[in-house]
Amino acid sequence: MLNTPQTIAVLLPCYNEEVTIGKVVHDFKESLPNADIYVYDNNSTDKTAEIAKTAGAIVRKEPRQGKGNVIRAMFEDIDADIYVMADGDDTYPAEAAPDMISKISEGYDMVIGDRLSSTYFEENKRPFHNFGNRLVRGSINFLFGAYVHDIMTGYRAFSFTFVKTYPVLSCGFEIETEMTIHSLNNNLRIYEMPIQYRDRPEGSVSKLDTVGDGIKVLNTIFQMIREYKPLPFFGGLGSVVTLVGLGFMLSVMFDFWRTGMVARFPTLIGAVMLVIAGLLLIITGIILDVIAKNERKTSILDSNKFSMLHRMSKRL
Known about the structure:
Elements: E1 8-14, H1 21-31, E2 36-41, H2 48-55, E3 58-61, H3 67-77, E4 82-85, H4 97-106, E5 110-114, H5 120-123, H6 127-144, E6 156-159, H7 160-165, H8 175-185, E7 190-194, H9 210-228, H10 230-259, H11 265-315
Parallel strand pairs: 1-2, 1-4, 2-3, 5-7
Antiparallel strand pairs: 4-6, 5-6
Helix pairs in contact: 1-2, 6-9, 8-9, 10-11
């Protein structure tokens, strides 16, 4: 049995990055000379694909618009032991990739290139992006009891098992938030590595829509909390509805104790309905929480199977 060296794939999803993609491919080739550099062109209208190919990248097309769709195609198509994902806009330092890969080799499932602990807030000239990063980070860490510094970074490294068992649901830029929530929910091994972020060079234009993509990210957080944390979500909502119903009910009962008559039947009926609705929401949360725990068990079993099969294939 032979132990083959680890294969590394660098994943660069791109849309109209002709200004920077050549340098990005060159930088990763210098930092990771044995890696395969993949550039997936997402319907660019400029020379992104041509420049990437000239620089030595493996160029493929992805017709479904959106970063999430590109990542889904990359994860499905490409087989490697370790994956490094970055953007084609030259904002992430390729020289950090070897250290990120070494952490995956140590057994981590995902390494996060942490921009926010270093130069992001100084380099990024878009104040709403800074505010959005803080808002998303604070809400997810609070709800999942975590301490992740950079939720939305596009610079990450993954293990083979993570890539092949992670269900990509998002279509757009909310994909990074989804990855982080998925990892926290399934208690995966995450390592954060501070990196030196730099803003886009002159002539390179961001594809982010601050308001539109921000709403999509918040909607993703809302949906995934509902799915991954159903008991706090439905239980909290049900508790509020039940307390409101009990408040109205107590006011009617107070009048009854004082006068011996029920003077507000509509209020009493509405209060009882609110209490029933609140209890149903709490019961719904309990049932969905059991289902979510079973899904986490299934996810862990699938990861163990993929990891075992991957180790066996490497030994052959």
